[in-house]
Design goal:
Shape: elongated
Largest sheet: 3 strands, antiparallel
Helix content: 25-40%
Radius of gyration: 41 Å
Region (Disordered): 1-65
Pfam families: DUF742
Order of helices and strands: HEHHEHHEH
CATH class of the domain at 100-171 and 178-194: Mainly Alpha
Number of strands: 3
CATH architecture of the domain at 100-171 and 178-194: Orthogonal Bundle
Distance between the termini: 101 Å
Length: 195
Amino acid sequence: MTPPDEGQGQYGVPYPGTGHDAFGTPGHGLGYGQQATPPGPQAAGQYRTPHPQFGGAAQPFPPQAPAYYSAPVPPEPEEEDAGPLIRPFAMTGGRTRPRYELALEALVSASVDEARLATLLPEHQRICMLCTGEVKSVAEVSALLSLPLGVARILVADLAEAGLVAIHQPAAGGESGNQPDVTLLERVLSGLRKL
């Protein structure tokens, strides 16, 4: 058995910090107080090693700054009124049709006292407050409260059935000689201008 070289143990394994790495390559071991070279192009001499299958000369690494990735930040939601946070079918109890048919141009007026208003659902309260003091059509109620038209019809019909709002249905075509009511058309035009 040959005596071990200086800096190696009994079986030829280098002592830590003797200038050899774990694979026996000289020059990469760290001595006391030495700092490790950061991995990357600086440690590899700033050259890529050629691929054994494709050959070719070693190519220099392009200088790069370290890339730090973070999750994309979602855009801030707009501060506009997004409408009700409740699904429409939940507002109507799952119903898709009103108990009786309401025309789009049917006019709604309300006169509800504060005590009775406090016992209503929020959607019904909003309709009553909107139609108190000023007559609105069902289409206007739908647009101003950002409700689907079918939902607005059902909610207004519920309020009418409970006696909380008065419904003024437009005259049938036979009563006015198949011509629409002029006051109704003026009212609808005025409502459209306000929007």
